[in-house]
Design brief:
two-stranded parallel ribbon; 2 strands
């Protein structure tokens, strides 16, 4: 194999290799280690502004997701809600997000990425206004459906917008901002929930939705969308604005043109795309991604986030339930950055192991606490600290592994040829699981008790540990090209093709 061919194989977005399980050919991939100079801040300043601006809307997602936790007690009192009605108020958001995820693909391709994000922000604004003026639980149903649709559309649009506006050197760092802002939104909701009830919390949501309407006029549409509409002059202007006034964008502009032309030349029919999506090897990879998504949600995380205050109230904890909820929000926020530090040092699988073990132990202890409290005559007053301690370990464990890694690995192990449609399927499946878990959580707790409910979640997380051990590949330190070839069944060995290059083993 010639050096030119080897170099070609290092390009991340290669044509996917299908059904090569029995192929024994060994590819030699040179590891070209070139230390790139740091990107000047002047070149990324506007990209940072753009990432912060769109991540602000992600903060509203976090606020909206956490809303029912501090608001549930006052909602139950004012609207005389039973568990069934309260679970519908909570679970209608993920159900709406499922529909929004399907709608999002159409919107970003026809309305554009930037305008779609504005639409979601306006939908949040309308949802919180309806919420604020609610006269009964039906208003809450409508509000949660609208906000859910917005969440679903945004969950597809934000990653696409950032991927198409931020340059590779800082994509990892700036790509963390939506997650960080989302956790800030959860924390804000918990903090305001210590002082305000459901109506005032809705008013805060209205206020949070306004700033993006203003900064929207500052940021630009993505160059990738503009080039797809034949707006070459606007594409160059957007690129120049994003990369800085003194940056030469000619090479990137021409690469963008070439990439779009190649995509249009290789467009497939819907039938052909489905055939590739459900081929034997891709079906296996989809199984890994869907498995991770299922275990992420069936760990019970959204049930905990949505009902934190109610759970603490039922636990009889020695700490006030609103204060305990706020502490959980702080831990959830901090853990995002801990995960960012270790994800490329320890590897994906190690963090998933730590995550699963932490959640199994904390859910087991939490279930035991509720068992002693509800099913025995033992006074658990001396264990009043245990619910909060268990929740801290649980949320920290989730955020280290099963929170971010399923989404990260979705982009890593799915071949480029099916990445778009497969990601849509995985996202829809994730929201479906979220809806089911949040809908049945309180119903399960009422029927079998909180202790058995937490033990069921713990048993599912234990299964996720086994799933990770036997089926999930390690992708740390490997290019998308290497991952794709390895999972397609082709042996990959790294070799030094240039003097003084150190070989790097590639294994799962």
């Amino acid at each position: 194999m010639h050096l030119e061919e080897n170099l070609r194989m290092t390009i991340p977005e290669i044509q996917p290799l299908q059904d090569n399980k029995d192929k024994e050919e060994q590819y030699a991939v040179p590891e070209l280690q070139q230390k790139k100079p740091p990107v000047p801040f002047a070149h990324i300043k506007t990209q940072l502004i753009t990432a912060i601006a769109v991540s602000w809307v992600s903060m509203i997602i976090g606020y909206c997701s956490a809303y029912t936790s501090p608001a549930s007690i006052s909602l139950e009192r004012d609207f005389n809600l039973d568990s069934a009605k309260l679970t519908w108020i909570t679970s209608l958001m993920p159900l709406g997000a499922l529909g929004g995820g399907i709608l999002g693909g159409l919107l970003i391709e026809n309305l554009g990425r930037k305008w779609t994000i504005l639409l979601t922000d306006l939908l949040f604004l309308v949802a919180f206004i309806v919420n604020y003026f609610a006269q009964n639980y039906v208003y809450m149903y409508v509000s949660r459906i609208i906000s859910g649709v917005s969440v679903g559309v945004l969950s597809l649009t934000l990653p696409v917008y950032l991927a198409e506006t931020v340059q590779p050197e800082v994509r990892g760092t700036l790509g963390l901002l939506p997650t960080a802002f989302g956790n800030i939104g959860i924390l804000l909701c918990y903090l305001f929930g210590t002082f305000y009830e459901w109506q005032q919390l809705a008013l805060v949501g209205v206020v949070l939705s306004i700033p993006f309407v203003i900064v929207f006029w500052v940021i630009r549409e993505t160059p990738r969308f503009l080039i797809s509409r034949g707006k070459e002059e606007e594409t160059q202007q957007a690129l120049q604005w994003l990369r800085g006034p003194n940056t030469n964008i000619e090479k990137e502009f021409h690469e963008l043109q070439k990439s779009y032309q190649e995509e249009t030349e290789t467009d497939e029919t819907a039938c052909e795309s489905l055939k590739v999506l459900f081929s034997l090897n891709n079906f296996k990879l989809m199984g890994i991604v869907l498995g991770l998504m299922a275990f992420q949600q069936w760990s019970g995380i959204n049930a905990v986030i949505f009902y934190t205050t109610k759970i603490f109230k039922e636990s009889g904890s020695t700490l006030d339930e609103t204060i305990s909820t706020t502490i959980v929000g702080v831990v959830n926020f901090i853990s995002t950055f801990i995960a960012a530090i270790f994800i490329d040092k320890l590897g994906r699988k190690v963090l998933l192991y730590i995550s699963a073990v932490s959640m199994v132990l904390s859910l087991g202890v939490l279930g035991a606490y509720f068992f002693l409290k509800d099913a025995t005559d033992i006074d658990v007053g001396f264990l009043g600290f245990l619910p909060l301690a268990s929740f801290i370990v649980y949320v920290l464990g989730f955020s280290l592994g099963f929170g971010p890694i399923p989404w990260l690995m979705m982009g890593e192990i799915l071949p480029a040829k099916i990445r778009g449609p497969a990601a849509s399927v995985a996202t829809g499946f994730n929201w479906t699981c979220t809806f089911i878990v949040t809908k049945i959580f309180l119903l399960l707790a009422d029927e079998i008790g909180f202790h058995f409910t937490f033990w069921i979640f713990g048993a599912i997380v234990f299964l996720s540990l086994l799933f990770t051990i036997f089926f999930v590949p390690e992708t740390r330190g490997q290019s998308l090209a290497d991952i794709e070839r390895k999972l397609a069944g082709i042996k990959v060995r790294r070799m030094s093709s240039v003097a003084n290059l150190k070989p790097m083993p590639s294994s799962f």
